[in-house]
């Protein structure tokens, strides 16, 4: 693999060593290979590890198979992919409800397999959506950018916003739920609020529109626990319409849709705001 990256003006002054280690998060072993093989060029020239990197410089990185051994998965159906954004390093797609983000068995096909077929190479999951949830999902197109995107997700630098149709109406315009979430020991499929043993979780909820007995709310994740939005809303008396696990009388599809993904591109520092349309979700609001 070879990548050419132009250093953006907004990147703070740094050295080659700091750039590879702190910004690109390249593991020590691979940085060693890059250095001894002279696989790092700045503006076409070999460099010293302490050389300064300036805005406008073009850095060329060459990775061999021993750096990132090739990984292959079963290719899916490219025609099932709805692209929302794509560049050399990442792709954002619109997942339909009823489709898994990634497979649990080697012979199973899921969105990751379809995206890999669409791109023409193995891609990598950055975050996932529940099978019943639709909307924007981010994938890394190479193992070089994957740890960078993972760190951004951990540092809350990737903002994920969801629309949910709740059965019942919130008492306030905005609310923040911080109930800890753990496993339901009576049902392995489910999660529940567990103040003692649960993991920290935070969901910001904003009421967008009231209907006769339901409400459309916007949910922003501050953490990424399994079923977080579904558990928080259900726990506070606002189960999501159609939720097969947390609504006492589910009807129709789960009315939860990841409608917006916002992040700063790790290499260009360009702000990306990607929205995912959903015909079936919008029809459910009528």
From TrEMBL:
Record's signal peptide: none
Catalyzed reaction equations: a uridine in RNA = a pseudouridine in RNA
Top-level taxon in the UniProt lineage: Bacteria
Cross-referenced InterPro entries: PsdUridine_synth_cat_dom_sf, PsdUridine_synth_RluA-like_CS, PsdUridine_synth_RsuA/RluA, RluA_PseudoU_synthase
TM stretches of this protein: none
Domain Pseudouridine synthase RsuA/RluA-like: 89-235
Positions with biased composition (Basic and acidic residues): 176-185
Start and end residues of each stretch annotated as Disordered: 174-201
One Pfam family this sequence matches: PseudoU_synth_2
The species this protein was found in: Streptococcus panodentis
Keywords: Isomerase
Similarity field: Belongs to the pseudouridine synthase RluA family.
Protein name: RNA pseudouridylate synthase
């Amino acid at each position: 693999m070879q990548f050419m990256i132009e250093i953006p003006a907004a990147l703070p002054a740094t050295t080659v060593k700091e750039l590879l280690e702190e910004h690109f998060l390249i593991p020590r072993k691979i940085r060693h290979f890059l250095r001894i093989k002279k696989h790092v060029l700045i503006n076409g020239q070999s460099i010293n590890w302490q050389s300064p990197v300036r805005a406008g410089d073009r850095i060329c990185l060459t990775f061999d198979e021993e750096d990132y051994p090739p990984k292959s998965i079963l290719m899916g159906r490219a025609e099932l992919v709805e692209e929302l954004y794509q560049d050399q390093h990442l792709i954002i797609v619109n997942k339909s409800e009823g489709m898994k983000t990634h497979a649990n068995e080697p012979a199973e096909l899921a969105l990751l397999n379809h995206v890999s077929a669409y791109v023409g190479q193995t891609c990598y999951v950055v975050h996932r959506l529940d099978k019943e949830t639709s909307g924007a999902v981010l994938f890394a197109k190479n193992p070089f950018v994957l740890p960078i995107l993972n760190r951004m997700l951990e540092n809350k630098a990737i903002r994920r916003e969801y629309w949910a149709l709740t059965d019942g109406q919130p008492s306030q315009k905005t609310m923040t739920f911080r109930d800890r979430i753990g496993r339901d020991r009576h049902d392995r499929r489910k999660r529940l609020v567990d103040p003692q043993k649960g993991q920290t979780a935070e969901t910001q909820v904003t009421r967008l529109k009231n209907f006769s007995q339901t409400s459309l709310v916007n949910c922003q994740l501050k953490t990424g626990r399994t079923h977080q939005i579904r558990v928080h809303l259900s726990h506070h008396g606002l189960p999501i319409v159609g939720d097969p696990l947390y609504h006492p009388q589910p009807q129709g599809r789960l009315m939860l849709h990841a409608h917006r993904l916002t992040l700063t591109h790790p290499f260009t520092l360009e702000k990306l705001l990607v929205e995912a349309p959903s015909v079936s979700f919008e029809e459910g609001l009528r």
